[in-house]
């Protein structure tokens, strides 16, 4: 049975990526669509592991913004638990450190984009047909999924 690794960059402008032999990525769907996607995938493949970026608050982030982000993050975790899907919370520093190896110096977002373009050539990184810029939520979700696949393979090889 094929392992499906899902990477999630939570948040309003986040993204979702699925790696299971092929690669699929999209902007983060609403919570109901996300739940239906997991239910559908789980009916055909119980070998799913979700890696989700661990939530944290940011300095100078507004109270309402922090509350909405935390609410959405909690909903995502609730859906994972409700569908009995294995998941791992990954601090941003952990997956970025692993992914930025071999990238040129620069800001973190540019290095992540460089790594994702190298790892997933030809993968659509824009949110809509009219967009020209890569959707950073999609980029991060792909990076998190890649980290998750690497992490699980490393775990299997060390046992």
- And the CATH topology? Nucleotidyltransferase, domain 5
Computed CA radius of gyration, to the nearest angstrom: 15 Å
Spans with pLDDT under 50 lasting ≥5 residues? none
User: So what's the overall shape?
Assistant: globular
Question: Number of domains in the coordinates?
Answer: 1
How does CATH name the architecture?
Answer: 2-Layer Sandwich
Instruction: Report the mean per-residue pLDDT as an integer.
Output: 86
Helix proportion of residues, in percent? Answer: 40-55%
Structural class: alpha/beta
Distance between the termini: 20 Å
Biggest sheet strand order reads: 3-2-1-4-5
What is the C-level CATH assignment?
Answer: Alpha Beta
Name the helix and strand elements from N-terminus to C-terminus, one letter apiece.
EEEHEHEHHH
The CATH superfamily is Ribonuclease H-like superfamily/Ribonuclease H
Main β-sheet description: 5 strands, mixed
| SS element count, helices | 5
Number of beta strands: 5
Report the portion of residues in β strands: 15-25%
């Amino acid at each position: 049975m094929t392992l499906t690794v899902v990477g999630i960059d939570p948040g309003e402008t986040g993204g979702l990526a699925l790696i299971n032999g092929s690669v699929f990525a999209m902007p983060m769907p609403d919570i109901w669509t996300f739940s239906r996607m997991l239910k559908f995938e789980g009916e055909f493949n119980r070998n799913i592991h979700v890696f989700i970026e661990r939530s944290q608050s940011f300095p100078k982030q507004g109270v309402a913004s922090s509350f909405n982000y935390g609410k959405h993050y909690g909903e995502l975790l609730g859906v994972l638990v409700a569908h009995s899907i294995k998941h791992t919370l990954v601090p941003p520093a952990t997956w970025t450190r692993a992914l930025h190896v071999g990238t040129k110096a620069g800001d973190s977002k540019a290095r992540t984009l460089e790594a994702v373009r190298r790892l997933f050539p030809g993968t659509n990184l824009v949110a809509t047909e009219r967009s020209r810029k890569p959707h950073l939520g999609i980029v991060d979700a792909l990076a998190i999924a890649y980290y998750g696949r690497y992490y699980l393979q490393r775990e299997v090889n060390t046992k």
